């Protein structure tokens, strides 16, 4: 039984459309390869799917550039010149943008103002005023953050100070209650620098050692 003729129209279902595209593309490339081998023809096929993906077939005996050069020579057009002109036009636009940006920068620094009209100067003034407002807001935020950081550090120093005062008060109340340097610097402890108070701890000393300990002794035996 012969197959019915398929009506050539756009396939609405996207999945079916993609499957059909893939199958027919492979069949087309197969036929192109057969044509190139059997007839020693130079065959080139370039196609894009609905998703923008490129698929191409090129005869093994020729490159894309060679194919395009031969096409230009045969048809009488210059693809490369057109492409070069487009690139040159794009370059000119980029140079104009760069020149305008440099001029705007110089104007914001107080230069190149002679050619500006009153309205342009007024607009520039408003832009500068808005920029100063944003800069000041940012500066105030930075200062506020620094103040908060200093407050936290100050609270830590005050806590260290209170703890150290407590240790000294305990020593005055009990002569056997001493302060021992645990590897820190006494001057830095007294000045509360870098949290130096953590290098000191208090302990009770044996009364027998209070009057006989050497002057440079830094540790004492603890009471049981």
TrEMBL record:
CDD domains hit by this protein: MADS_MEF2_like
Organism from which the protein derives: Mercurialis annua (Annual mercury)
Keywords: Coiled coil, DNA-binding, Nucleus, Transcription, Transcription regulation
Classification via Gene3D superfamilies: Transcription factor, MADS-box
A single GO BP: positive regulation of transcription by RNA polymerase II
One cellular component (GO) term of this entry: nucleus
Compartments in which it is found: Nucleus
Gene: AP3
Coiled-coil spans in chain: 140-167
Superkingdom of this protein's organism: Eukaryota
Main localisation: nucleus
Protein name: Apetala 3-like protein
K-box domain: residues covered: 84-174
Pfam families: K-box, SRF-TF
GO molecular function terms listed in the Swiss-Prot or TrEMBL record: DNA-binding transcription factor activity; protein dimerization activity; RNA polymerase II transcription regulatory region sequence-specific DNA binding
Residue span(s) of domain MADS-box: 1-61
InterPro entries reported in the protein's UniProt record: MADS-box/MEF2_TF, MEF2-like_N, TF_Kbox, TF_MADSbox, TF_MADSbox_sf
């Amino acid at each position: 039984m012969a197959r019915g003729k398929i009506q050539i129209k756009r396939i609405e279902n996207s999945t079916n459309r993609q499957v059909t595209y893939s199958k027919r593309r492979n069949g087309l490339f197969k036929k192109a390869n057969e044509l190139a081998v059997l007839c020693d023809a130079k065959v080139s096929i370039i196609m894009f799917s609905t998703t923008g993906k490129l698929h191409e077939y090129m005869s093994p005996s020729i490159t894309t550039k060679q194919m395009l050069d031969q096409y230009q020579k045969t048809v009488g057009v210059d693809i490369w010149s057109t492409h070069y002109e487009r690139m040159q036009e794009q370059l000119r636009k980029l140079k104009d943008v760069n020149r305008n940006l440099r001029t705007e920068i110089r104007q914001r620094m107080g230069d190149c103002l002679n050619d500006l009209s009153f309205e342009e100067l007024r607009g520039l003034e408003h832009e500068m005023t808005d920029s100063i407002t944003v800069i000041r807001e940012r500066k105030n935020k930075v200062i506020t953050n620094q103040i908060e950081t200093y407050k936290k550090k100050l609270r830590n120093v005050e806590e260290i100070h209170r703890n150290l005062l407590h240790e000294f008060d305990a020593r005055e109340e009990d002569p056997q209650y001493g302060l021992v340097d645990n590897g820190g610097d006494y001057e830095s402890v007294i000045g509360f620098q870098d949290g130096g108070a953590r290098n000191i701890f208090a302990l009770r000393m044996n009364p027998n050692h209070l009057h006989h300990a050497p002057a440079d002794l830094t540790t004492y035996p603890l009471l049981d």
